[in-house]
Write a sequence for this structure.
């Protein structure tokens, strides 16, 4: 095989694979993962436009290890499950799902964002991605100062 | 063995056992169970005195079956995990644990309360029971109208 053919074959094999690999997988089954904590973000909060509502954090088993050591292994996945917060009759209840945010650890695959892939699925729909190639500015910019906890905001509680 | 001795031995063996059986077990490991839903109950709500704060409902596998059929099998356990709700800076965050409420299904053991044993553990402490023999008035009175869903308020959501 001539060298230019080899190069073309390698290019054909590698390019789509790299693109697919870099795509953060939808966290199938996350509703059965460990519920870490919850929080309500209300009108007036600086993150209200992006994250207003009630959110729950879920962690897979690898992510649970990560919380305990502040070093999340490859394969660790955290989900930020954001639902509308409906205020009525002196109570806050859960409404429709707004977005499923994901952090997926793979140090080699996501070197520019702390080893984490970031994605958001609008309404929880696995086919509607809202972050894509914008992870560095849309997500990591706020996580970057948290190197001591491997760029993760949430902490485990009992 | 004389018959009175036999009766005494049976009494010794059975009485404490019956008492222990009726005691609702602490739901060890519930934090790893399925997170069903959450809600914040605020000042002004009629249940604020008892249940003010943010609560999460957790279900074991048997209880998950129950939600899907509105008939919870023996062994189904639901946990009502109530934490302080701290309001600050346009957000509601989780504070200290106030109580771990439990519904534990055993139709034969709890015939007067819809087949459910009810208990509360103050602060989540397995040794500090706050319901004890008061389940009928303290808990079941409010659940009694819900026969159609096997006396359970919460519903599964995605």
């Amino acid at each position: 095989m001539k060298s230019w053919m080899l190069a073309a074959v390698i290019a054909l094999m590698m390019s789509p694979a790299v693109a697919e690999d870099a795509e953060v997988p939808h966290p199938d089954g996350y509703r059965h993962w460990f519920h870490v904590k919850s929080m309500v973000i209300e009108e007036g909060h600086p993150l209200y436009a992006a994250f207003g509502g009630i959110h729950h954090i879920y962690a897979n088993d690898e992510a649970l290890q990560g919380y305990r050591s502040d070093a999340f292994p490859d394969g660790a996945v955290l989900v930020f499950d954001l639902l509308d917060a409906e205020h009525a009759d002196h109570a806050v209840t859960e409404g429709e799902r707004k977005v499923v945010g994901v952090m997926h650890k793979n140090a080699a695959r996501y070197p520019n964002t702390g080893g984490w892939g970031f994605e958001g699925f609008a309404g929880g729909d696995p086919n509607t991605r809202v972050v894509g190639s914008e992870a560095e500015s849309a997500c990591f910019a706020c996580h970057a100062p948290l190197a001591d906890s491997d760029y993760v905001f949430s902490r485990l509680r009992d």
Observations:
- The interface with chain B takes residues 31-32, 34-35, 37-45, 48, 54, 56, 58, 89-94, 97, 124, 157-158 of chain A (CB under 8 Å).
- The longest helix of chain A spans residues 3-22.
